[in-house]
Structures are given as structure tokens and as C-alpha cells.
Amino acid sequence: MIENFMESLNVTIDANRLWNLLMDLGKIGEGDNAGVTRTSFDQKDIEARKWFLKLLEQAELSPYMDAAGNIFGQIIGKNPELPAILIGSHLDTVNSGGRFDGAMGVLMGVEVLRTLKEKGIQPERTIKVVSLTDEEGARFDYAFVGSTALVETECSEKLKENLASATDKDGISYLEAMKQASLAGEYFNQINPDFIEQAQLGKNDVKAYLEVHIEQGKVLENEDLAVGIVTGISGGEWAEVTIMGEAGHAGTIGMKERKDALTAAAECILAIEKIAQDSSGSVATVGKLEVKPGSSNVIPGRVEFTLDVRDISNECRLSTVTEIYDSIRTIAANRGLGCEIRPVQSLSSVMSSPSVMKAVKDSLQELQYPVYELPSGAAHDAMVLGKLTDIGMIFVRSQSGISHHPDEWSTFEDVALGCEVLFRTTLKLLSTSGQ
Ligand SMILES: [Zn+2]
Predict the structure, then answer these.
(1) Which helix (H) or strand (E) holds 296?
(2) 56 CA → ligand 1 middle, Å
(3) Does an H or E element contain 154, and which?
(4) pLDDT value, residue 156
(5) 381 CA distance to ligand 1 middle (Å)
(6) Ligand 1 center from residue 213 Cα (angstroms)
(7) Percentage helix, strand, coil, to 5, in the chain?
(8) Ligand 1 centroid to 328 CA: how many Å?
(9) CA of residue 39 to ligand 1 center, whole Å
(10) Which of 42, 166, 209, 227: disulfide with 174, CB 3.0–4.6 Å?
């Protein structure tokens, strides 16, 4: 079906140019296992940023960087006071991730702007492509830094505090890493974590934010569809939990006298699974566990683990989180152990704007392609930017639903169609009048 469809499609964008850039970018940070690693402000991330800035320069898209390290390219509209259309995603990856997550959405934005330029279209309102700093949070366990900086109003102090306290595995703080990156040359000198509020945008600066992203699930594949419209993005709650027990000799301390932090953590983790299973749709994950002192003949005295809870319903997510916290406290207390729960980040669900969804739907219909809607279980920058402006997302089918992995893949045809839908959606949003 897709093959026939691609043959019949009068594609406006240059799919080959887009694909080649995507493959080129995938080489920056490529490891031995073919996975891509570009974590925030590391050497490969800086290299990718330089590559991207050069691309924007070559495409004559007037690049600039803001205080948070977000990189923009743009076509200034005839009426630059009108709120702009923003298309974007992120260039950072997880450790040993894929070539598509984030990078595809950013490069599609560039392709859309290039196509507009080549067609000689100067829109009424300004259109920008943006690569947002650190969506993944892989290096400092702190995500959505670029998008948060764009929308923060009353909370920029909190953002600064988090940048000062978040550290990578070598003990380098986020703040230090950003200051180091600000020395990387032209454009980079705009990075300024001490005055990160300079990156903030007002509601009158942006009319809508559009993001194309790989689905990272199997829904589209099961439906035999290349592209889908995202209805909304699940909110999330992230926390760190510490269980405090007593370390002791594995041979001399009897089972009844023990205060084993790991067995308590194990009970907590099973309880977390059960609470999520019994909820109306929450998903909960413990993805990281640290056992101290971490010796085979010592009873674990202290365990730290992470908690990640998501739900499209804010109400259900909060009730799941409350139940989990209560359960952890009860389990620790029943075993005579201490516990500490530190909430790290909390993001509400965001629904896509009906007007943006309609523009995507109309574009699909124009292309005589089936319209299919699905929610996003994964968090995206669009969720954060939903606090600032109307958002909309387009998902492109992921082969076998694999993501955050070297095998992450979307086909040339699917990527081409996704970008064509983005281009047509953008034209529709640019043509809408008013603020
Ligand atoms: Zn992503």
C-alpha cells in the first residue's frame, strides 16, 4: 500500500536530502555497536551542534543560540510581530541510542524551511526550527532543560538550582558543563546558565509548536500505517527513593535481626508494579537501582532507586503516585527501616491543540492517506511547550517499536511521508490569520 502510495504522491519536500542528513548526523557519536551517544554538552553533542549550525548557515536560515543552548534557524515573516510557528525536537540521545529519536524531527523542520525558501514563499509570520537542549536527560538525569527554559516564568530560580545540583557520573555539574560549552566558539558564547531566564519566550512570541517524532511503540506498525496524529502526551512523575537499613556481616547476623535495605526495596518494587497494574492506566517503572555497600558478603545497608510514573490522566497519575509513596513508607516502617522519597520532576499531561490536529488531519486527507489518532505514552518537549503555546505532534512508525536502541529504525518512505505531512501542516498554520 505504502509503495503504491509513494509512487502516486506528489512529494513537495526533498526526501533524499532529508534522509542523507539524517544518516550523516547519525554518524556523530556512533559507537562500536552502531548505537549513537550524544548526551547533553558532551563532546559529541557539541560536535552535532556545530554540524547543525553549519547546516543552518548553508541553508541561509539565520541561526542563533539562546542562553539555554537551544539552537534556532528561521525565516523572518513579512509581519514579524505576529507570533511565530516553531518546529522542533532535540539532537541529544540516550546512551547508545538510535539515529531517529529527536534528530528526525529537527531535520524535518530544516527541510520544511528549506522547501519554503526554495518555493519562494515568504510567510506572513516568522517560522523557526529549533533544536532543544537536553530532552533525554541521559547525562545528568535531568531532562527537558531547553524546553523548560523557554517556558519558565516563576520557576527559573528552580531551574537554576537544579542545574547547580545535577551532576554527571564524573561529578561535573550541569552548570559547569554549560559554562564549559559556552567557550566552544561562535554562537556558543550565548549559553548562559546564570541568566537562563533570557531564553524565555512569551505567549505572543509563538503561535504553535509542531514536533514530528518516531512513535517508540508498535501501534502504527500494528495498524499498517506510516504516520499518526498525536492526541496528547502522558504526564509523568519522577522521584528518587532511598531505603535506609543497616549493613552487616552476611554470615553472622541472623535473619530476624537484619535490616536489609535491598529486600525492602524488592518488596517496594513489586508493590509499585502491582499498584500500576491495578490502576486504570498508569505505568510505573523502577529503572535504576544502587545497592550499598554493594558487596557479596555484606547485608545491603542502603538502596537508592528511581521511580517513573506516567498516565494520560493527570488525576489518575497523581493518585497512583500517592498510593506508591504510601506503600513505600508502609513497607519501610513495617521492616523497621527508614525511607526518603525525593520528587525530582512532575509534568502534567498535555493535550494537542484541536486546530493543529485539524491541520494535520486535513494534510493527511489531501494526501489521501488514512487519518489515525493515538496518544503518546512517552514524554516529549511538546509537553513542556504546551504551557506556552498550542502544540501538535505527528508520529512516524518505528520498526518493531524499538527506540533508545541502536536498532531504532523508520523507513525512508515513512520518513518522507512524515515530512510531507509536516510541510503541508505548516503551510496551513502559516496561512491562519490573527494572533
Ligand atoms: Zn525524543
Answers:
(1) none
(2) 21
(3) none
(4) 79
(5) 8
(6) 7
(7) 40, 20, 40
(8) 31
(9) 12
(10) 166
Domains of the chain: 2-234+349-431 (3.40.630.10), 235-347 (3.30.70.360)
Contact 396, 415 (CB under 8 A): yes
pLDDT given at position 433: 64
Q: Are 403 and 98 in contact (CB under 8 A)?
A: yes
Cα 384 to ligand 1 centre (Å): 13
Dihedral over Cα of 410, 413, 418, 422: its sign: positive
Q: Express each pLDDT in 141-166 by its tens digit.
A: 899 999 999 996 656 788 899 999 99
What pLDDT is recorded for position 1?
Answer: 46
| Distance from Cα 292 to the centre of ligand 1, integer Å | 33
Distance 335 CA to ligand 1 centre (A): 40
Cβ atoms of 426 and 119 closer than 8 Å = no
Strands 235-244 and 338-347: antiparallel
142 alpha carbon – ligand 1 mean position (Å): 14
How many whole angstroms separate alpha carbon 425 and alpha carbon 366?
11
214 Cα to the center of ligand 1, angstroms? 8
pLDDT less than 50: residues of the chain: 1-3
Determine the pLDDT at residue 435. 56
**Owner of C-alpha cell 531517529:** 100
CA of 89 to the centre of ligand 1 (A): 7
Residue 426 Cα to ligand 1 middle (Å): 20
CA of 337 from ligand 1 middle (Å) equals 38
Per-residue pLDDT, 96? 95
Q: Please state, in angstroms and rounded to a whole number, the distance separating the CA atoms of residues 179 and 405.
A: 30
Residue carrying C-alpha cell 555484606: 298
Q: How far is the CA of 233 from the centre of ligand 1 (A)?
A: 13
Identify whether 293 is preceded by a cis peptide bond (ω within 30 of 0). Answer: yes
DSSP code per residue over 105-119: HHHHHHHHHHHHHHT
Distance 134 CA to ligand 1 centre (A): 10
Question: What distance, in Å, lies between the first and last C-alpha atoms of the chain?
Answer: 40
* Ligand 1 centroid from CA 331, angstroms: 35
Nearest to 399 by CA among 387, 412, 386: 412
Calpha distance 187→172 (Å, rounded): 23
